[in-house]
Design goal:
Length: 199
């Protein structure tokens, strides 16, 4: 792991630092590493930053958090793409609050520019699941990439391949822009090792 990636992960895992504040930090300091080198006065000059966030940044005890995240990532065979990478999805980068770090498996392909994301509800209905399956399979059959958040429980135990009519390798991806949890990494690791795309 490079020092650059370490600082990207460390800042993304800092309590109180979400996508919008991360973006403001980059606009002010250019790189996450420079954020950790900044003085308290300079950090406080960024809109939305208070004393508590400054304290979290200046603690400097991020090794265990970063290593835990990387351990979970290795368990599912994933990699990381940051918003500073050329491979970061251009359309995602242009939204108001793009996630600074994407956890993914495989690689992003040119055809993934035409994609639809499925974000599950914690309480799904049988009608909702049926319509999601129908629309997803229709889109997948027309070459649209389907991105799914990988949490089986939000779709009543269904997998992404179920939604995409079994077209896993061509039309299905897993993604995560908010970090990995032990529960979700276990689900992704156990059921989707062969898939390609963001986690």
């Amino acid at each position: 792991m490079t020092q650059d990636l370490f600082h990207w992960l460390a800042l993304s895992l800092t309590p109180g630092v979400g996508s919008v504040l991360f973006k403001r930090f980059l606009e002010r300091f250019e790189t996450p590493e420079e954020v950790f080198r900044a003085s308290a006065v300079d950090l406080l000059s960024v809109e939305g930053v208070g004393e508590r966030i400054v304290e979290e940044i200046q603690k400097g005890s991020f090794e265990k958090k970063v290593e835990r995240e990387l351990s979970l990532l290795r368990r599912v065979g994933g990699t990381i793409v940051t918003s500073g990478d050329e491979t970061y999805p251009s359309r995602l980068k242009n939204i108001y609050d793009p996630p600074p770090v994407l956890y993914m498996r495989g690689r992003l392909r040119k055809e993934d520019d035409v994609a639809v994301a499925i974000v599950g509800s914690r309480k799904t209905s049988s009608y909702g699941r049926a319509m999601t399956e129908r629309v997803s399979q229709e889109l997948a059959s027309r070459g649209v990439t389907i991105k799914w958040d990988g949490t089986r429980d939000r779709f009543g135990g269904s997998s992404g391949s179920h939604f995409c009519g079994g077209q896993d390798d061509r039309s299905f991806g897993l993604w995560c822009g908010c970090g990995l949890s032990a529960r979700e990494s276990e689900s992704v690791s156990g059921h989707h090792r062969s898939r390609s795309g963001p986690l």
